[in-house]
């Protein structure tokens, strides 16, 4: 009996071993999967401002915004992924989505923050095909993911029939690929705005995440004439009703708006018509306790600001663009992490493409630019309150200010002057022009000098990498010094022991 078992074991031990390993792998895999489903950490992508130009030519001359080939320049440089003087090629948009999909395709939802088409052709004949391509590409790369498209000011066909403008837009641009929710579709067809509720965990009692998507182009002072006055008023009334309903149902709201609130601190104007902004902010003030964050685009800058009034706050995170036009940003995309249970943002990672390197290598190699928590030394929680605290740090300490300015201007061509920095600091929380001007005067009178805070900001270097490398070098030096002192101590102790032993030996 024993003999036959040992023979059997010898013969089949390899098979038993293989089965054991397979079962173990299956067990571990099932455990990991169940962890995934129960995990409270979720992720989502945010893309903004692609400004795709259908007239872009890979061999186009930047002097002609990459639309025509230069007759004098015989060496035609190929720029597949864009140039700082031009709106973006389609290939750049595809590259951004493909990169996002490669990094993480299993996100919970994808947010598109608006402005799909070129600054140079705003007519329906170019806008419609560009947005249609956007709908198809987004759906192609994220076939089953919830997609939340936001309209930008460059997505509105100003010449279209006012009463059917958004219905026509929806039908002609294949927005049915992106927006299928019946209620959302109904209000979108009316005015380009909508709201969607989303369950983040498989738990019916859980608080719902609600996206409230505004069509902010309608509130811009310079295009008011293209809308009926009642359109903007109806949207504000809808916003009020929606926020009130969200409050009653205990939802948590992610507010999505293409235009950020407040002042353009560089060109000194307000993004919104004053009256409309006041009405919107009054509603925001009333329901700020349920707003997770406001995410916006339009400026192409990677910046943040906080609306605060009394003891209420609302953080606004403004996203860098996919389009590199105007040296405002390298093409960038952002992946957020959030807590599905508490419904708060926890962190984000920003990825960017170095346009000059892409031109040299003809390759689109996107890399991690920075992670919010480690860049700003914050714990993993991005709330309106924590942003407000960060704003105070940016105003007080040069370390944080430098990092804020590097984010904002890292591909900027011009030198950042003292008054630019003062304006940036005041605009962080001040949305009213009188307060903003007063703040600028106070800081100027105090003779704060911020010049030379950014010394060598060249578009060819990776400013973020440089900045963090300097920090890592300090850490390495400290560790090295620590190890040196430790070894020195050990050597001294060893020497003393050996001296003692030697003297005892003599005794
Ligand atoms: Zn815009």
TrEMBL record:
Q: What keywords appear on the UniProt entry?
A: Glycoprotein, Hydrolase, Membrane, Secreted, Transmembrane, Transmembrane helix
Stretches that traverse the bilayer: 12-28, 475-497
Q: Which GO terms describe its molecular function?
A: phosphoric diester hydrolase activity
Residue span, Calcineurin-like phosphoesterase domain: 44-301
The primary location reported for this protein is: secreted
- The Sphingomyelin phosphodiesterase C-terminal domain covers 330-394
- Gene Ontology CC terms, in alphabetical order: extracellular space
- What InterPro entries would the database entry show? ASM_C (IPR045473), Calcineurin-like_PHP (IPR004843), Metallo-depent_PP-like (IPR029052)
* SUPFAM superfamilies tied to this protein: Metallo-dependent phosphatases (SSF56300)
Compartments where found = Secreted
Q: According to its UniProt record, which protein family does this protein belong to?
A: Belongs to the acid sphingomyelinase family.
List the PANTHER family hit by this protein, alphabetically: METALLOPHOS DOMAIN-CONTAINING PROTEIN (PTHR10340:SF57), SPHINGOMYELIN PHOSPHODIESTERASE (PTHR10340)
- Protein name listed in UniProt: Uncharacterized protein
Q: Which organism is it from?
A: Adineta ricciae
């Amino acid at each position: 009996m024993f003999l036959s078992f040992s023979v059997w074991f010898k013969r089949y031990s390899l098979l038993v071993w293989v089965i054991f390993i397979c079962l173990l792998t299956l067990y571990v895999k099932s455990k990991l999967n169940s962890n995934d489903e129960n995990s409270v950490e979720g992720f989502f992508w945010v893309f903004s401002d692609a400004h795709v130009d259908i007239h872009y030519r890979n061999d186009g001359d930047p002097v002609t915004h990459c639309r025509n080939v230069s007759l004098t320049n015989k060496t035609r440089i190929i720029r597949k992924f864009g140039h700082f003087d031009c709106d973006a090629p389609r290939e750049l948009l595809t590259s951004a989505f493909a990169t996002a999909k490669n990094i993480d395709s299993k996100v919970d939802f994808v947010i598109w923050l608006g402005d799909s088409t070129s600054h140079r052709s705003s007519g329906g004949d170019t806008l419609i095909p560009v947005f249609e391509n956007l709908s198809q590409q987004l759906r192609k790369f994220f076939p089953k993911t919830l997609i939340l498209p936001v309209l930008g000011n460059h997505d509105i066909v100003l010449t279209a029939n006012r009463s059917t403008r958004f219905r026509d837009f929806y039908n002609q641009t294949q927005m049915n690929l992106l927006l299928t929710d019946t209620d959302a579709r109904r209000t979108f067809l009316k005015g380009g705005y909508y709201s969607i509720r989303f369950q983040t965990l498989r738990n019916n009692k859980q608080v719902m995440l609600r996206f409230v998507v505004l069509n902010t182009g309608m509130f811009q002072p310079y295009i008011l004439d293209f809308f009926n006055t009642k359109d903007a008023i109806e949207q504000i009334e809808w916003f009020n009703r929606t926020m009130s309903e969200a409050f009653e149902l205990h939802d948590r709201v992610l507010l999505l708006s293409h235009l950020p609130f407040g002042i353009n601190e560089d060109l000194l104007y307000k993004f919104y018509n004053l009256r409309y902004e006041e009405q919107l902010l009054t509603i925001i003030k009333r329901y700020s306790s349920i707003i997770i964050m406001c995410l916006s685009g339009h400026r192409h800058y990677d910046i943040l600001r906080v609306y605060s009034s009394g003891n209420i706050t609302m953080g606004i995170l403004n996203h860098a663009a996919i389009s590199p036009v105007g040296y405002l940003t390298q093409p960038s995309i952002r992946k957020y992490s959030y807590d599905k249970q508490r419904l708060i943002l926890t962190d984000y990672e920003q990825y960017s493409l170095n346009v000059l390197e892409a031109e040299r290598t003809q390759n689109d190699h996107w890399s991690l630019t920075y992670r919010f928590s480690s860049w700003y030394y914050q714990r993993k929680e991005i709330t309106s309150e924590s942003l407000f605290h960060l704003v105070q740090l940016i105003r007080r300490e040069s370390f944080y200010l430098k990092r804020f300015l590097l984010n904002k201007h890292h591909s900027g061509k011009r030198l950042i002057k003292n008054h630019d920095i003062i304006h940036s600091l005041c605009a962080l929380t001040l949305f009213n022009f009188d307060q903003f001007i007063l703040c600028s005067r106070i800081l100027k009178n105090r003779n704060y000098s911020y010049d030379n805070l950014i010394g060598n900001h060249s578009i060819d270097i990776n400013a973020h990498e440089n900045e963090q490398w300097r920090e890592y070098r300090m850490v390495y030096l400290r560790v090295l010094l620590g190890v040196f002192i430790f070894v020195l101590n050990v050597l001294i102790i060893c020497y003393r022991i050996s001296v003692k032993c030697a003297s005892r030996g003599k005794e």
